[in-house]
Amino acid sequence: MFRNAKNDYTGWLVVIGVVVLLLEILFFNSGLIFSLLFSGGLIYIGRRKAGKRSGKIFTIAGIIFLFISVFSMMTFRFLLLAILLHFIIQYFNSKKYPNKITLDIKESEQAQQEETLIKTKPLFENIFFGQQKTPSSVYEWNDINIQSGIGDTIIDLSYTVLPKGETIIFMRNVIGNIQIQIPYEIEVSVHHSSVIGTTTVFENHQAQVFNQSFHLKTAGYDKAEQKVKIFTSLLVGNIEVSRI
Length: 244
What we know:
This protein is α/β, with parallel strands linked by helices. The chain folds into two domains: about 1-95, no CATH class; about 130-244, no CATH class. The protein has four helices and eleven strands; from the N terminus they run H-H-H-H-E-E-E-E-E-E-E-E-E-E-E. The strands form two sheets. It has a six-stranded mixed β-sheet, with no helix packed on it. A five-stranded mixed β-sheet has the order 2-4-10-6-9. Strand 7 and strand 8 (about 205) form a beta hairpin. The protein is globular and about 55 Å long. The chain starts with a helix and ends with a strand. About 20% of the residues are buried. The model is unreliable at about 1-5 (pLDDT under 50).
């Protein structure tokens, strides 16, 4: 019963948050959409002019306007209040309904062996700022699963040996560009979504700039013994998947 009440409470918070956001946009802060689009546009222009002084100015200005817009939102204040209320309710419920743990110990004839775990070093780390790219010399491959803040990611698969089966690349980025270079003999599947940005997968260029979501794959992907599946998600930025 307590678990159901907790789920209902969380669901109601989500519903109320959506209602508050709609009320704020429709009645109290109609310029919010323009502010967010303006901030995203500045950041997008800055990323397009990366490496130039004007690009840095546009990017910094866009980030500042974005933070100002978010912190001035009534919905953001409601979210902070909801988080505080959630922790207060959790605290009182933990005092009122403490978790009881019962141990059921059974003697076994043979002692269970400890399972051996092998820890490998990932190619990329979760970072908030900065660029990440694969080494420019031969390296050992590990599947990629990262979340990044602001920065570019470059992956070159020509310097590594991919294992048989399906190789996974999973990346979520707030602002930045993603470039993935894949050998010709490797089949590819691309799942991509972005709010603002352009997309180029081999010779296929997506003309849509806003709110993209699509899935492309090579013709022989399903039957290939060696293939790469790519999942990418961007708030603002471009993705390019090319052959090398």
